[in-house]
Amino acid sequence: MSISNHEEGFSFVEILLVILVVLVIGFGGYWVYSQNQSSQNTTNESQESSVGRDYIAEESTDVLLVPELGVKLLIDYDVTDIVYVINDFNNAELASVTLADSYPNCDIRNTYINSYGVEMKGIESGFIGSYTDAEANDQFFYPGSTYEGIFGDEALRIDGVNYFVVHHFQSPCLPNTATSEHKAIESEFREAVKTSSLEVL
Questions:
Q1: Cα 82 from chain centre
Q2: Distances from the Cα of 144 to the Cαs of 90, 93, 137, 140, 190, in angstroms?
Q3: Nearest in space to 170 (alpha carbons), one of 114, 62, 98
Q4: Residue 21: what are its φ and ψ, rounded to 5°?
Q5: How many CB atoms lie within 10 A of CB 15?
Q6: Within 10 A of 148 (CB to CB), how many other CB atoms are there?
Q7: What's the predicted TM-score (pTM) here?
Q8: Mean pLDDT of 110-123
Q9: pLDDT at position 21 over 70
Q10: DSSP assignment, residue 81?
Q11: Does the pLDDT value for residue 114 go beyond 80?
Q12: Cα–Cα distances in Å, from 143 out to 89, 127, 137, 140, 147?
């Protein structure tokens, strides 16, 4: 009888020991895991702080990234209201999303049929263009004007390519029935493009 009781008591102690060992291992594993997470968070924070202002600028609402051209447009305007399209000349045409969504004539993303039955493309409010050093003295728009003569001082030069920003009126795409709010957006956006600048992406 006493042997049988001793065996039952021994198995109870074994169970307690196993539970204790499992708890110790579990606690130890949790402690190691939490230490690793803390260390990893510190590393990520230091990496983000080393990126600094460029990282913040790219996430800002007044910087439009144009990776196709390798540039970013610094503009005093909410970029969530800007749409751009790369055209056949490798220019980034710019337009207001609000105006593009409201009027087909202002939507540079699509074509539309005008009142004469002719397929037209939406009118942009400006564009980011470029010219190579070899094209610097080529005519730009009107006779007697050259790329270098107009944009030479303001162009962003990247590996022999010179990038510039052109602004113009998008108002021709607005109908006579356009709201005063939309007319104000056109004016504000045009002025913002006019005073914008480019940086390397």
A1: 11
A2: 24, 25, 10, 8, 26
A3: 98
A4: -65, -45
A5: 10
A6: 17
A7: 0.64
A8: 78
A9: yes
A10: G
A11: no
A12: 20, 21, 12, 8, 12
Residue 199 CA to residue 58 CA, distance in Å, equals 11
Give the 3-state secondary structure of residue 130. strand
Compute the distance between CA of residue 7 and CA of residue 2 in angstroms, rounded to an integer.
9
Residues 154/164, Cβ–Cβ less than 8 Å: yes
The residues, any chain, with a CB within 8 Å of residue 83's CB and separated by 6 or more, are 94, 95, 96, 97, 100, 108, 109
Give the integer Cα–Cα distance in Å for 146 and 135: 9
Residue written as token pair 């993303």: 109
Q: Tell me which residue of 151, 96, 105, 153 sits closest to 129, measured CA to CA.
A: 151
pLDDT confidence of 110, banded at 50, 70, 90? confident
Please name the helix (run of DSSP H) or strand (run of DSSP E) that holds residue 131, with its range, or none.
Answer: strand 126-132
Contacts of residue 32, defined as CB under 8 A and 6 or more positions apart, other chains included, come to none
Q: Are 57 and 64 in contact (CB under 8 A)?
A: no
- Can you tell me the distance from the alpha carbon of 186 to that of 129, in angstroms, rounded to the nearest whole number? 21
The phi-psi region of residue 124 (left if phi > 0; otherwise alpha if psi is between -120 and 50; otherwise beta) is beta
